């Protein structure tokens, strides 16, 4: 299997807007995403879908959802292509001014999440859910789909009941499938967003190599890296730096105040770093000074495991076939974990989709794929990750890729052949 080779001058332009070369076209990005969702919707029996999940809302509207407090923003997409968006007072008023591509923005009633939970009253919660359903049914009537089935992308029983009390037929499975299918194949602009966030992560890796020294705490190194990520316009929604014994088994996804020492492995996990909403999952391992023989061998094994998988990802391949290239029981060190089955080894060796969420379709994993395979398609984007222990520490290696017609294009470019050495 060959890897995709980008054409001359293809990929990773600047992060700013310019008029003198083609870069990420945000208007096209929004329009193509909405059209893909609408095409999938029209293939169903639904008259409209209500989107409550933040990534689905952003996919259709282009609005930068922040995680929110649950149903204080929601969006309706009708089979005719109409979009109605509800949001909190300040957000909605700003969106009316700043988002001219959206023509119907209304004030939300948060029927789920923090507001009803904080009310401390069952009657208040019932009121909020009922009012939320009322706002949506009114919009359905306004746009001529009141008698059609409404798809909802979450399966909240109380919200479904609120709609059914108003005579609305609700489907909670089809809308999820519509959005999953629309989002799994990325447009050119989406791919470029992921390539850009990979480049920003590499700026963070460089900052680590420039600043990390013995005696510095993990928190200090991570702080410098985060400063660099924000400087390039990234959203930092996750990630961490660990060192020494905190690298195996993987520490609790948390940077600590441990001082880095000579001979340590230093592990940087840049996950959930966002650029225009598109999330990274990209990590590398560094050695504080020259690595030991055991550390070099562990790194080589992890990298080989990674590329064994990458070489088998192509359109038409199935996840049950590909996952067999991940380490077996011995390579997973299942005896060390006292584990008997692969499903117990979540996150150690797998590939997962990337997009507006950290985990999207596809998932390639020995714990699931053998019995539940899906087919790989051109345009899917994913992160592929591996790990190995070394001298009571551990190395991890990961690449971000997009599936092309003749193999994968590797979006991540930090050197991977050998462990990166930090001189001190």
TrEMBL record:
SUPFAM superfamilies to which the protein is assigned, alphabetical: Creatinase/aminopeptidase (SSF55920), Creatinase/prolidase N-terminal domain (SSF53092)
Domain Peptidase M24: 192-405
Transmembrane spans: none
Signal sequence annotation: none
Pfam family, one: Peptidase_M24
PANTHER family (UniProt xref): AMINOPEPTIDASE (PTHR46112), XAA-PRO AMINOPEPTIDASE P-RELATED (PTHR46112:SF2)
Protein name listed in UniProt: Peptidase M24
Species the sequence originates in: Natrialba asiatica (strain ATCC 700177 / DSM 12278 / JCM 9576 / FERM P-10747 / NBRC 102637 / 172P1)
């Amino acid at each position: 299997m060959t890897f995709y080779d980008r054409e001359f001058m293809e990929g990773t332009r600047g992060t700013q807007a310019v008029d003198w070369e083609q870069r990420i076209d945000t208007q096209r990005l929004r329009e193509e995403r909405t059209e893909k969702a609408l095409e999938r919707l029209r293939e169903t029996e639904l008259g409209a879908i209500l989107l409550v999940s933040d990534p689905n809302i952003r996919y259709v509207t282009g609005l930068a959802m922040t995680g929110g407090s649950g149903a204080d923003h929601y969006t309706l997409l009708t089979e005719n292509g109409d979009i109605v968006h509800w949001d909190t007072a300040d957000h909605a008023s700003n969106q009316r001014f700043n988002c001219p591509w959206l023509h119907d923005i209304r004030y939300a009633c948060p029927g789920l999440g923090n507001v009803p939970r904080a009310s401390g009253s069952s009657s208040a919660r019932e009121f909020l859910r009922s009012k939320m359903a009322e706002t949506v049914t009114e919009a359905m009537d306004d746009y001529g789909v009141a008698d059609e089935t409404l798809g909802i992308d979450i399966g909240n029983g109380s919200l479904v009941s609120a709609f059914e009390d108003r005579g609305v037929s609700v489907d909670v499975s089809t809308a999820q499938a519509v959005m999953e299918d629309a989002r799994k194949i990325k447009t050119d602009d989406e791919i470029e967003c992921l390539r850009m966030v990979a480049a920003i992560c590499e700026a963070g890796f460089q900052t680590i190599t420039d600043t990390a020294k013995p005696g510095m705490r993990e928190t200090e190194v991570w702080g410098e890296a985060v400063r660099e990520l924000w400087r390039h316009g990234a959203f930092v929604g996750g990630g961490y730096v660990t060192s020494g014994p905190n690298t195996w088994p993987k520490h609790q996804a948390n940077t600590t105040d441990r001082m880095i020492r000579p001979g340590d492995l230093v592990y940087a996990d840049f996950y959930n770093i966002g650029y225009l909403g598109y999330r990274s999952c990209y990590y590398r391992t560094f050695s504080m000074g020259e690595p030991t023989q055991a550390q070099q061998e562990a790194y080589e094994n992890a990298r080989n495991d990674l590329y064994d998988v990458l070489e088998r990802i192509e359109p038409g391949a199935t996840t049950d076939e590909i996952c067999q290239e991940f380490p077996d029981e011995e390579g997973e060190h299942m005896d060390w974990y006292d584990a008997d089955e692969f499903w117990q080894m979540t996150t150690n060796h797998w590939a997962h989709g990337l997009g507006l969420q950290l985990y999207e379709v596809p998932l390639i994993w020995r714990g699931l794929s053998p019995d539940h395979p899906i087919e790989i398609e051109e345009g899917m984007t994913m992160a592929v990750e591996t790990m190995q222990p070394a001298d009571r520490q551990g190395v991890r290696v990961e690449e971000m890729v997009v599936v092309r017609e003749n193999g994968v294009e590797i979006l991540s470019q930090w050197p991977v052949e050998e462990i990166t050495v930090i001189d001190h």
